[in-house]
Structure formats: C-alpha cells, structure tokens
Amino acid sequence: MSRERSFTIIRTAVSMAVAVLVAFLIIVLVSDQPLESIKIFLLRPFSTKRYIGNIVETAVPLIFSGLAMAIMFKANLFNLGAEGIYFIAGITGSMVAIWPKLPPVVFPFLCILVGAATGMAVMVIPGVLKAKYGASELVTSLMMNNILLGVGLYILNNVMRDPDVASLVSYKYRTNSLLANIVPGTRIHVGFIIAIVFAVLVYIFLFKSKWGYEIRMVGDNGTFASYSGINVAKVILTVHLAAGAIAGMGGIIECIGMHKRFEWSALPGYGFDGAMIAMLAGNNPIGVIGAAFFVSWLRVGADLVNRSSDIPTEMISILQSIIILLISAERFLHKYKQSWIEKEVK
Amino acid sequence: MEYILEMKNISKIYGNGIAANRDVNFNLKKGEIHALVGENGAGKSTLMKILFGMEPPSQGEIILKGEPVRFSSSKDAIAHGIGMVHQHFMLVESFTAAQNIILGMEPKKGAFVNEAEAVRFIKDLSKKYNLEVDAEAVTRTLPVGVKQKIEILKALARGAEILILDEPTAVLAPQETDILFEELIHLKEQGHTIVFISHKIPEIKKISDRITVMRSSRTVGCYETKDVSEKEISNLIMGCEMDTSIEKSSPKPGDIKIRVSGVSYTDKNKVKVLKDVSFGVRSGMIFGIAGVQGNGQVELVDLMTKRRSLREGDILLGGKSVKDMSVRDIRKMQFGYIPEDRIEQGMAAHESIGENIISNRYDTKEFCKNGLLDYKEIKKFAEENIREYEIRCSGSDQNVGMLSGGNMQKVVVGRECSHEPEILIAEQPTRGVDIGAAYIIHKKIMELRDEGCAVLLVSADLNEALKLSDVLAVMYDGEIVAYFDNTEGLNEEKLGLYMLGLDRHDKETVRRAENE
Description:
The complex is a heterodimer of chains A (346) and B (516).
Chain A: H1 3-30, H2 34-43, H3 49-74, H4 82-98, H5 106-133, H6 137-160, H7 190-207, H8 210-220, H9 222-227, H10 232-258, H11 270-280, H12 285-308, H13 315-328, H14 334-345
Chain B: E1 5-13, E2 19-28, E3 33-37, H1 44-51, E4 59-64, E5 67-69, H2 74-79, E6 82-85, H3 97-102, E7 108-109, E8 112-113, H4 115-129, H5 144-157, E9 162-166, H6 174-189, E10 193-197, H7 201-207, E11 210-215, E12 218-224, H8 230-238, E13 256-266, E14 272-282, E15 286-290, H9 297-304, E16 312-317, E17 320-321, H10 327-332, E18 335-338, H11 353-356, E19 368-369, E20 372-373, H12 375-388, H13 405-417, E21 423-427, H14 435-450, E22 454-459, H15 462-468, E23 471-476, E24 479-484, H16 492-499, H17 507-511
Parallel strand pairs in B: 3-10, 3-11, 6-9, 9-10, 15-22, 15-23, 18-21, 21-22
Antiparallel strand pairs in B: 1-2, 1-4, 4-5, 7-8, 11-12, 13-14, 13-16, 16-17, 19-20, 23-24
C-alpha cells in the first residue's frame, strides 16, 4: 500500500481518537466522577447483550444512509436528500404496513419495495435538475428535505394519525409487516442482514461493475468522462436513483424494524449522519459498516453516561462535528504527511 | 561577488512523494542570458518555482547578491527583484494592456485609478526597454507575441532584475521568436539577467551565454554555450546518444475518412473563430495543421469531437455527420483522439493506469462481462501498454496523477491508439513531452498511418508538423491560408510567413486541401 493511502487511514484514525479524547474532556469538565463516567462511556456499551444489541440496531440505519452518501460522493455529488427520503419513505412504507393484509415475509418485502421506490421517485427531481440544467444538487436536495417533511407531516396528521393516542403517531403496523427479530434478548432485526448484504452489493456495484466505473470516472473528472463517451447526465441520474433507493430502504427498515407505529415528527437526522459516515469510510461501502458501528458505539456510550450520570447526550453532536471537521480538512496533519513522504523518498 | 544568484543543494519533494529536485545547484552571473534545459519532468519548472517563491524547497539555500534569502511567496520574490513569465500567460483577457501591467500597483487619483498616468507609465516603460505595445488595446484581441511582451513588461514594471522565461518560444512563430531574441539581448545590455527555459536546442545555442543542464531531478552541469555543440547539448539532456529520426515511407492514400466542409464558428465573445474551413483526410495519410495557437485549431477539433456544437457547415467522420452522432457513437467507431490538455480532458488523475487506459472501451466484450469489469484482462492490457510505450510507473495500479507529464501522455496515447483506430485526431500530441516519449509517440502515429489510419495532426510545433505530415495546411485567423501537397523543401521560416498572416496561397491551392 502506498504511503499516501496509509496516511488517509492514519488520519481517519487520528480524527476518531481526537473525537473520543474530546468526549473525555467534556466529561471531565462536567462530571462529578469523571473516571467512572469515562469508563461507562467507553466500556459499558459492551457489557451486556442488550447494549451490544443497541449498538447493532443503531448501526443499521446509519449503514444505509452511509451507503447512499458514499454512492453520491463517489460521483462527486453532494446531495443531502437522504434526510428527507428517510422521512417520506418511512411514511409511504408505513401506509403499506398499516392497511393491506398480507402474509409475513412478503409483507415487509413489499413495504421495503415501496420505501425504495419512494426514494427513487424523490431523487428524480434533484437528479434531473442537475443532469439537465446543472442545478446544484446540494441546494435542491436541502429544499426537497423541507418539502418532504411538510408533505409527510400532512399525510401523518390527516391520513395515518391514530386518534386514540395523545402524541403524533400513526396507527399500529400490522404484525405481519414487522421485520423479524434475529437475536433473542435484543432488538436486532432482519434489517441488519439486509444492510450487510447491501453494503457488499454496493461495493460490487461501485468497484466491479461498469456502471460503478462510469460513476467513478464522472466523479474524478467529468470532462474526461464525457470525452471517453460516457453519458454524464445519465450517470448523474443513475447515481441519484441508486442513492434514493438505498436511503428509502433505510427509512422504512428503521420504521418496521424498530417501531410498532410511525413515530417521527421531525426529520430523523440520518441523512446528515450518512455524510459523516461516508467520509469516515473514505466512501468505501465495506468501510461504511465499520464507520457506522463506530458512530453507533459512541451514541450508545453517550446515551448510557447520560442515563447513569450528569452528562448530556447532546455531547454526541459535538463529537460528530469534530470528526467531520477533521476528516474534511484536507490540510489536517499535512505537515506530518509531507515529512513522512519525504522520508520514504530518501 | 561573482554571482548575483546562487541556489545551493536544492531538494524538493512533493506531497505525492515525487522528488522533483535532488541536490540541484544553479547560479547566475549578472547580465547574462542563462539557458536552463532538460527534458520535461527533469525538474526545471520546479527549480524555477522555488526561485520565484511559489514552492518552498525541502532542503538547500538560495543566496541573492551574497545574502541568504527565503521566499515565502511570489510577492517576496518580486520584492527581491525576481520576475517570471509563465508559459501560460497570467493576464486578465478583458483588461487593456496597461491595466494588466499595473494590476496591483495602480497609480491612484483619489480613490480611483489614474488611467492616463498608467498609460503614460507604460509608454515610458516600453520605450525604455524597446518593448512596444499598444497600452490601450484590449488583451483578448492581441496576438500571442504581444501578450508575451505584456508579461515581460509586467515583470519589469515591478522592478525585476532577474527575469525567468518559461519556454517563451513554445507559442511563437519563427519570426516572432527572432523579435523576442532582439528584445532579450537589449534587456541584457541594460544589465538584466535572464533565465531562459527551453528544449529547443538551436535557440539555446543562439541566445544563451551559459547553459545549465538538468536530468532526472539533478543538475548534470553548467557549460559555456560557446564550448558545447548542439549535438553535445542533446546528449547531455538525454544522457545518451539517441536517434530520433522517423522513417517515412511514401503514403498510400485510400478513402476519405474525415470530411470537413464549409465549417464556420462564432464563439461566445461573438468573435468568428472559424471561417468557412474545408478539408478532407484520406486513410493512410497524415494531414497536418500548423499554426500559431489560438487561430481556430482548438475550436475546429472541439467541433469534430462534439465538445462544441456545430451550426454552420458539416463534418463527416467515416461518412457520418457528427451532428447525428453522440460522443459515444463516435467512440464506437474505430476512433482515437489525443486531446490537447491531457490533465483536463485526457485522464482521471485519481484513478489507476489500468482504469484510465480502458475508458474508451470499458464496456466492450474484451473488458466487460455481464456488466462486471474483468480486472484481470484490464491489468493484462495495461501491462502490455506499459511495456510497449515504456511508461515509467510502479505498476498498473498506480494513479495516473502520480506520473510525470510525458508518462501521462503515453497512457493517453496508449489508450487512443492501441485499438487500431481508422481515424485519429492528434492535438499537440507531444507538447511538454520529453524527447524519448515524443519519439515513441511519433513512431506510433506513423505506424498507424502505414496501417491505413486517417490521421489529423494539429500541432504548433513546426518541427513535429514537418516531420510527420504527408500534407500540410496552415491556419491563420480561423482560415486555412496555405496548403502543401507534400512537405519537401518546406522549412520553418517559410511556414512562419503563412502562420503570421504575412502571405497566403490563392483560393485554388487552398481548395486542394479538400482532397477530392
């Protein structure tokens, strides 16, 4: 492996370590019994089967959104629409889960299919605007997020709302529509297996298939891609559809895997998490699994310290910002990289 | 104090691990013209970037007039009396000559720029250095030679005593080069020191007092120009003797493969850059287009390859109009295109050699089965090309962006030529490429022509155009102004007259370019 590539890995590791150290710092500043809290933060997530289960189940939606963003980033597109898609695909998938009567296996399959189709349908808009008119996908997708939240809440309020419950939630899903649990004693569901399978599929798609080749060439140098005869507009649209489908799946899988009803009343935040995870993973789909587990470990840890001591869970958002900042800062550790590379040459 | 400037044991290692300079020594005497020569990738540009403060050296010291100095930016270097004229001009095209020269040091009248004062200042300056320019002309409308003068004046206006010229003659016609040389000698007489980067050996011999030769990131040595012959200089640059002559058999022209008829084009500045251009290229022939850059060649090739859309006239490739084809359709024919700008258009820098070398046919049966790419085949193919073109790299997995310019170009040429194209458009195929790589590329183009490929060669390098072309057209101001059935008896001086628009052929002769 070249030093350049090893350096990227080292930098990522350093960023992760810095994030954890900052967590320590916050704990030391805020907590009455800092050592105890740090121990809880780092180790308690691994102490019981249930907590390990928490890590896994938290990682599932993060893997899907990380994959969606990795595909986007590989094409050099910065589309944060996964956020809105999680929400709206949750809504459309939930409608399927609430009304029709279907046998198990087929039922959740249909829900996921509807979620994925919703995601694709939504992505057509920023995709076409970008491919045909060159509209910034960042702007259009952020606008779409707000629109989708509004539309979704309207449907939730007027069509799906369960009047017997005080809070804003939908009717109960039919039992047959729920994703089966795979590890008794935890809430780990079939969605985890689907996530792993899709990580592998996306890896093959991006790095082994001709479509992935087109995406990577467009992402690296669009002028070169069109010079080579690649239809750049088509690739941009393909990328949007693929990322939309995966984000849509992530949204509905989270709903029918973890909940009994549709419970989100605001954007769930997974789209933005996906951007961070894809960055951590260097846009490698297999790396996305690891990055998702790292983030979900931090989350479960933060949640546990919050419950057992005086540290607010909001700490986690600070950590995430730090990770994004360090990884996206190209010049971070640049000096060390330079002297390290100089040493190799000598 | 013998030297005005000394660079001692300079080393520079770039962030991608490439050592561009290793223990380089370079010095300048006051009032000399010093040629810095070497193949591309030998480290000349890097050394000058260090001198001009654009890159910090990893090691070594710079001594200017006996004082050690360290430049943190070009601004620093300029303050110390060093000026540089880059190969690609750094001018604001929509500004006038005067505005460009005073940019950043404008004479003020209250809060406004004192334009009248600026024009007067430029007039004095050009008189003093014998560099005549029209101070009030808009830069875009000026020919390349004048733009270069503006660049030189820009440096002089900032008090440059040491002037670095990076391949100043690459963009000039022979007559313009002569004018430049007169100007340089005039500057020298006034006590300025000039660093002249070039790889055209006859020019170096003609203009310079001393020569520093660089080869693979090191200095080979410094010589008095009068003590070395052209042949010796060439050997020092190459490190060995090399025969770069190309054998040329008589052409056997076949069917018309490229037909350009009545093509005109108006660009976004409403300038008519192509005026009723017509010509034809038959298989088995190399059709050369010579001309100073910026006379419509780029636009012509862009129209042929669909980077720009054709409105007036028609272009047929293999009998089909480009209007009815997408880039992909063109690519599906046996078609090769070596683009002028290899980095912008010809490669994905962060991808491997293997992935770059198949980009024009990644979806053919050869490399793609059931939608999946066959990386074993790709590796095999890439390695064949690495061998054939002597691409210097660590393997087919290396990213193309890590290679030197000449080796990048070999990857591009390998991709565009190894599928036996019937039509090849070669746009400045050896610009910025070292002698060895240029020889390999020339040999390949000649080989394709012998196999019956129709080659359109667009080149600003007259030497190359004369060496390869079977027939040669000269473009000036968007028109074909001259056409030669064969290149026998032609030389650079003669072509120069047409390139500068001083002479032109009659309509009858130019019409023969259509090769009916």
